[in-house]
Specification:
The structure is a single chain. With 342 residues, this protein is an alpha/beta fold. The chain has two domains: 33-114 and 218-340, 3-Layer(aba) Sandwich (D-Maltodextrin-Binding Protein, domain 2), CATH 3.40.190.10; 116-213, D-Maltodextrin-Binding Protein, domain 2 (3-Layer(aba) Sandwich), CATH 3.40.190. The chain has helices spanning 14-30, 47-52, 55-60, 72-81, 92-100, 146-157, 172-180, 193-199, 208-213, 226-231, 233-252, 254-265, 269-276, 284-287, 302-315, 325-330, 335-340, and strands at residues 35-40, 63-68, 86-91, 105-113, 119-123, 138-141, 166-169, 186-189, 202-205, 219-225, 280-281, 294-295, 298-299. β12 (294-295) and β13 form a beta hairpin. The two termini are 39 Å apart.
């Protein structure tokens, strides 16, 4: 885990200094950013519509530099370093870890409740039919991701350990390459990597429904670097609005939306359309309900999911400790959602 060194600005002496600081803050918040750095994942989701059509750039009124990430853990590192302003569709596991460690980010929105969108794919010829069959096998997943969380949950709920199964840390592209070389027996990952494995000798080993009932709920989220959201709140609301526009297009014109997503993700339109149906994409308005993030000042139940996820990570010794529920509630900022969905 990255060790975070926090610096403090010296306090300006005198009322004049305080007044200047307040004025500077108002000017910074009023201005549009000159550039925005966004960490993202190549996925078969409506996020790719807003990216591909340039809606995110138009909304924030600045050129966006897009950096593809391998996991939410990479987004956390980049945000901490100041090289990433917005993490688009980062996983709930990485977000829970970030909040637990006090990293400088805020949760501002959701993309989806993942459900079956991420799943365990095994080589059909490997004969993996029961949990006991996995002993001695090699499974890959991006460490620090929601898929990694689910894979660990699969092992735990079936009385398997990482001494029974070799778990390898690989980015989606590396998983695809290792699969083609016959180096792994299975992988827990999202599409388009998941779709490619299924198309080249793979089959689903269904786990998601049992794991979700056991508390392994995973979601894709939108997070923002704290310094950025403090300086450019209007840009943050506009960014969410652009995603809302993409969601509307997907619901109203699913075939056209799937074609755009397919082009961005490098898959066929039929694969994109099938993948899109696997996710529960939550509208901006629904995100403001008690079931999910909640309205401003009224924390929703999703903070409890983040807290329980962090507790699991502590038990796995992935992070040292998890704070009380209040920390996850405070890190969830829904005033930008409220503005974007108004």
């Amino acid at each position: 885990m990255t060790t975070i060194m926090t610096t403090r600005r010296a306090v300006l002496a005198g009322m004049g200094g305080l007044g200047a600081l307040a004025l500077a803050g108002r000017i910074a918040r009023a201005a549009a950013p000159s550039a925005v750095n966004v960490g993202f994942f190549t996925e078969t989701k409506p996020t790719m519509i807003a990216k591909g059509e340039g809606w995110f750039d138009d909304a924030v009124k600045a050129k966006i530099t897009w950096t593809e990430m391998g996991s939410g853990a990479e987004i956390n590192t980049a945000i901490t370093a100041g090289s990433c302003d917005i993490g688009l569709a980062t996983g709930s596991v990485a977000t829970a870890a970030a909040i637990a460690q006090g990293l400088p980010l805020q949760l501002i929105g959701m993309v989806d409740n993942i459900g079956p969108g991420e799943e365990l794919v095994v080589r059909a010829s490997a004969g993996l039919k029961t949990p006991a069959d996995f002993k001695g096998k090699k499974l890959a997943t991006p460490f620090g991701s929601t898929s990694h969380f689910r894979l660990l949950g699969f092992l735990k709920t079936n009385d398997l350990t990482q001494r029974d199964v070799t778990v390898l840390d690989m980015k989606p592209a590396a998983i695809d390459a290792a699969w083609s070389r016959g180096e792994i027996d299975g992988a827990y990952v999202w599409s388009p990597a998941k779709a490619k494995l299924l198309a080249s000798g793979g089959e689903l080993y269904k786990t998601w429904d049992v794991l979700e009932k056991a508390g392994y709920v995973i979601a894709d989220l939108i997070v923002v670097r704290t310094g950025f959201v403090q300086s450019y709140p209007d840009a943050v609301s506009a960014f969410l609005g652009a995603y809302g526009k993409a969601l509307d297009m997907y619901r109203q014109k699913p075939d056209e939306a799937a074609a755009i997503v397919a082009k961005q993700a490098g898959v066929s339109a039929s694969v994109a359309a099938a993948d899109l149906k696997e996710y529960d994409f939550i509208s901006l308005k629904d995100q403001l309900t008690p079931r999910w993030l909640g309205a401003p000042g009224q924390p929703g139940k999703f903070a409890e999911t983040l807290k329980s996820t962090a507790d699991f990570l502590v038990a796995q010794k992935s992070i040292k400790s998890a704070p009380a529920l209040d920390a996850f509630q405070k890190a969830t900022r829904t005033e930008f959602l409220a503005k974007a969905s108004a």
